[in-house]
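Quick check before the chapter quiz. The format below is the same one you will see on the exam, so make sure you can read both the input and the output lines.
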Amino acid sequence: MTSAVTAPSDLEPLLALNLTEGVGVVLYRRLLRRFGSLAEALKAPEHALREVPGIGPVLARAIRDQVRRGTAGREIETACRLGIRIRPFWDEAYPSVLKPLYDPPLVLYEKGAWTPEDAVSVAVVGTRAPTYYGRAQAERFARLLSANGLTVTSGLARGVDTVAHEAALKSGGRTVAVIGSGLRNIYPPENLRLSERVAERGAILSEFRLNASPNPKNFPRRNRIISGLSLGVLVVEAGARSGALITADWALEQGREVFALPGRLDNPQSAGCHALIKQGAAKLVESLEDVLEELTGVSRSAIAPPAASPASPGTDPPSRCAARDEERLLLGLLGPEPKHIDLLIAESRLASSTVAAALLGLELRRAIRQLPGKYFVRR
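Here is the expected output.
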């Protein structure tokens, strides 16, 4: 595991930019092209900054003010003291699946540890006020995903998010929360203890400064990270104006899979799910197999393959160990000759959902290759 701060001499100017509202990856790249390095860019006078396309007088002044205040240095010191890691996007521990995105976070604050294994993830999202049905289905799918070795990603919000994180933890699986506030300002406050448990068995991530308040405009932006970290997004229950639909939109834009659960026709909390299904934007899901079958053949063109990495701190939860045992079993059944998934199910005597999840893990680790028609061969 890398230290809490990676290359502080490079991190501080990057963090100063990240703390300046209105600066993202696009302007970062333009500044590099114009000045050659961030350090030089932050030494530049306002009139030179204004020569960069997209930087006007107000933003140029904000960048210079940020440098003068020295906020970035104090932010780094505070993070170190609290055991919070600051991951610039060049850090080896920065999630590789986010780097190909059009607008990846310049910096991620991390409590706990996101690992390359967590790239095999499904985001479980939905309304903050779920019905009994919505809560039951969120719990059911998060539990089954965890039992099959997938990480459950969500946003730590009230409702479906909370249920999904809780179910993953109870199942002994990993879970990742991406929040719309700073890591020193957990929102909602009643989920503070849950956030600590998530950090113990996964990670809490934010692109916002440590003390950032839960500003409503932050949440649509953080949703692109939730979808970007995941192979697919499962919308459990969502009204017509639910924020979960923003996550689904981001997923479609990023080339991820989108799934939605149907609900009662007279339940307004399912109107968003029904709209996604009706428009062909989401696949209707009735069981875990519906999700895993799609993900087994998911295109990885928009997602960087996870690199091999050492295990995360501590012992693996039972669900992870079981998943690895099943992968080894299936790998032993595969050779240079293609085998159909049905034959692998029969020979392994495992449930179809278990086989699908294990094949997905092997495919993402590039141990096997899928051929048309649900045939698989060993690499």
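If your answer matched, good. The chain has three domains: 8-82, 116-296, 318-378.
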